[in-house]
Amino acid sequence: QVHLVESGGDSVQAGGSLRLSCAAFGLAYGSNCMGWFRQAPGKEREGVAVIRSDGTTMYVDSAQYRFTISKDNAENTLYLQMNSLKPEDTAMYYCAADPSRWYDCSPKAEFPFWGQGTQVTVSS
Fold first, then answer.
1. Residue 109 per-residue DSSP state
2. Which of 48, 95, 105, 114 is least buried, going by the fewest C-beta atoms within 10 A?
3. What is the CA radius of gyration of the chain?
């Protein structure tokens, strides 16, 4: 049974930073593809960043150079360091995992396992 638990969401002012964490349970060591997604009120869920078990990362344009995705394989924990936060980053943030995805690990992929989300609110 795969279980993903996000934490670290908070309310911050624009320009601030947050680090989100996602503890993964029931996933094989070094699970192949994991990512962060977000959904703002009234909007569709969108991919933010993904990381493959070899460390390869991919970001959407809005996250590039401000966000950093990383993973501690030994602890099976996924992170998202978010800097220079903007009000438009306000959303529920979710982590997702796909143990079998490799070549097509991207923010646009469909993932089978999801966490419950952690809220990020950025005020101007």
1. S
2. 114
3. 13
Which of 6, 7, 18, 8 is CA-nearest to residue 122?
A: 18
Query: Cβ atoms within 10 A of the Cβ of 101, count?
Result: 20
For 10-56, write each residue's pLDDT tens digit: 999 999 999 999 999 988 766 689 999 999 999 999 999 999 988 99
87 phi and psi angles, rounded to 5 deg: -55, -30
CA torsion angle 113 108 94 116 (round to 10): -40
DSSP state of 116: -
- The one-letter amino acid at 66: R
58-95 pLDDT, tens digit each = 999 999 999 999 999 888 899 999 999 999 999 999 99
